[in-house]
Amino acid sequence: MIYLLCSAGIGRTGTYIALDYLLREGEQEGSVDIVNCLTTLRRQRTQFVQTVEQYKFLHEALLEGLTMKDSSVDTKDFPAMYDKIKRKNPKSGKTFLEEQFDVSLITYIGRNNMR
After folding, report:
1. What is the b/e burial string over 82-105, where b = at least 16 CB atoms within 10 angstroms of the residue's CB?
2. How far apart are the C-alpha atoms of 18 and 77, rounded to whole Å?
3. What is the pLDDT along the chain (115 residues), one digit of tens a residue?
4. What span, in angstroms and rounded, lies between the C-alpha atoms of 102 and 108?
């Protein structure tokens, strides 16, 4: 069980609850309906996901959660992997972390263009 609180219990908490719900929906249904999810949640708490930044984060976290399925790392290897991807790729000038994000974005866009 996870307990999550922010100062008012609506903005950040609502964002996390929506993310959890939508990740499960995506896994089970093969699609997500963000607007419907927020409409349903806001019937219980009117200001769930309060800011544009939280709304953007919800989309970015969904992008990561729904598209990066094969990027798992053993927990014991995670610190070394994270140190490695924080480094800049001399060829691109970006960190490997930024490149990984770009790949996740391209994967997301590619999947949506195929529909």
Report:
1. eeeeeeeeeeeeeeeeeeebeebe
2. 30
3. 555 555 566 677 888 889 999 999 998 999 999 999 998 888 887 777 878 888 888 898 898 888 776 667 889 998 998 888 889 989 989 888 888 777 765 554 444 444 4
4. 10
Q: Where are the domains of the chain?
A: 1-67, 68-115
Cβ atoms of 58 and 18 within 8 Å: the answer is: yes
- Return the DSSP state at 70: T
- pTM for the whole structure: 0.58
Give the whole-angstrom CA distance, residue 30 versus residue 11: 26
In one-letter notation, the amino acid at residue 44 is Q
* Nearest residue to 68 (alpha-carbon basis) of 106, 113, 18, 14: 106
Among candidates 34, 24, 40, which has minimal Cα distance to 55?
34
- The tokens for 20 are 């959890």
